Amino acid sequence: MLSARHTAVLLQLLHLVWSVTDGSSSSGTPPAPLVPARPPRTKNGPRRAEQVELLKLVKPGAMNLSCVLDDFLGATPDTIRVSWERDGVEIAQSEVTVQRADGRYSLRKEFFIERPGNYSCIFRNDTQEVTKAFLVTAPAMKEVRDKPVVGYVRDSVVLTCKIHPAPPAWQWYKVNGSEKDAVNTTAEPPRYKVTDKGEEVALTVMNLTEEDSGSYLCVALYLIAPAEGAVHLRVITFVEPLKPFLAIMTEVLLLVSLIVACELRGRTRAAQATATAGPENGRNVSGGEKAWPEESNGVEEAATRQRKA
Ligand SMILES: *[C@@H]1O[C@H](CO)[C@@H](O)[C@H](O)[C@H]1NC(C)=O
Ligand SMILES: *[C@@H]1O[C@H](CO)[C@@H](O)[C@H](O)[C@H]1NC(C)=O
Ligand SMILES: *[C@@H]1O[C@H](CO)[C@@H](O)[C@H](O)[C@H]1NC(C)=O
Ligand SMILES: *[C@@H]1O[C@H](CO)[C@@H](O)[C@H](O)[C@H]1NC(C)=O
Ligand SMILES: *[C@@H]1O[C@H](CO)[C@@H](O)[C@H](O)[C@H]1NC(C)=O
Ligand SMILES: *[C@@H]1O[C@H](CO)[C@@H](O)[C@H](O)[C@H]1NC(C)=O
Ligand SMILES: *[C@@H]1O[C@H](CO)[C@@H](O)[C@H](O)[C@H]1NC(C)=O
């Protein structure tokens, strides 16, 4: 007993609900691949970085760094001067003269490395330089996720970090503006639980409130330098993901009740009409036509169909 117009609107709404449901299921499409930004190349600079080697250290210690060069920018002088730099600053009295031997220039120096940094050897003559850099770092956190972890109010949530090798200890922080507050696992009532499994650590945040939303830092406390990872948490209420759906459902229900109201009105009038026109003759709605002139064709049609059924 729906009028053509009402039916059309309802169909549109249903289509809307459909496409919203559809959209949420196809939201997992992978993002466009990121194009790595290439650093500009300085072809004719006086200093040429020949090689960079990454060294991961977990604790301070002695280490032999060795530099080998086959030729000096195409030339093969008998000797070449080499000095060392740490973080761009020349290490005093580090310059030595290296003899060409076995078709190359080779030297080694033992360092006691206390902290991450950039150690480089610089081969040079009076006009040109060639460097080899060793970038000493602490291990980095694995599988860093940029999407936030979602938790529900009053529920609990588990945040995890992974690193290799296992650090001597882990620490969690909650970011508060520019500050970071150490997570207190002994406070009463307990809000946090830390599970340290060596290479993996888990922070359970219990009894979530919306104030628990934000960034958490897991810190692997290596002796050479701490390694940090960030996990973002978003605490939402149960209704939040349903909100757009509920809005549409409300509209649909409103419309349906409107249609039902119209229908009831129509039925009453149709009943009046049929009372005059006779119940068996479906086509004979002359009484009705008189009651509703031209504009309410839809309701008249509906009334007709209703009587047929
Ligand atoms: C560096 O090399 C020297 C000479 O071969 C050696 O005596 C020393 O033990 C080495 N140091 C380390 C940390 O391996
Ligand atoms: C320095 O080395 C470059 C490249 O091998 C060479 O062209 C240049 O003549 C050298 N300069 C001096 C002063 O030896
Ligand atoms: C490391 O130091 C060398 C020489 O000082 C420099 O050429 C290189 O750009 C530095 N690398 C980084 C990543 O700082
Ligand atoms: C965040 O920092 C401010 C100022 O340092 C402090 O007043 C507030 O209590 C902190 N919030 C939490 C949740 O610790
Ligand atoms: C953790 O909270 C408890 C109880 O509030 C307090 O006694 C303790 O000092 C706190 N620990 C730290 C590391 O802040
Ligand atoms: C959770 O928090 C509410 C309000 O802050 C509190 O009443 C309740 O006791 C807490 N539940 C647990 C298990 O800590
Ligand atoms: C239907 O209408 C026709 C003409 O208006 C009339 O002759 C006939 O009696 C009506 N039938 C009924 C059942 O009222």
TrEMBL record:
Signal peptide: 1-19
Entry annotated with the keyword Cytoplasm: no
Keyword Nucleotidyltransferase listed: no
GO molecular function, one term: cell-cell adhesion mediator activity
Pfam families reported in the protein's UniProt record: Ig_3
A GO cellular component annotation in the UniProt record: axon
GO biological process: axon guidance; dendrite self-avoidance; homophilic cell adhesion via plasma membrane adhesion molecules
Cited InterPro entries: Ig-like_dom, Ig-like_dom_sf, Ig-like_fold, Ig_sub
Keywords, ordered alphabetically: Immunoglobulin domain, Signal
Region called Disordered, residue ranges: 24-48, 272-309
SUPFAM superfamilies for this protein: Immunoglobulin
Pro residues bias spans: 30-39
PANTHER family: BASIGIN RELATED, EMBIGIN
Designated name of the protein: Embigin
Organism: Scleropages formosus (Asian bonytongue)
This protein's encoding gene: EMB
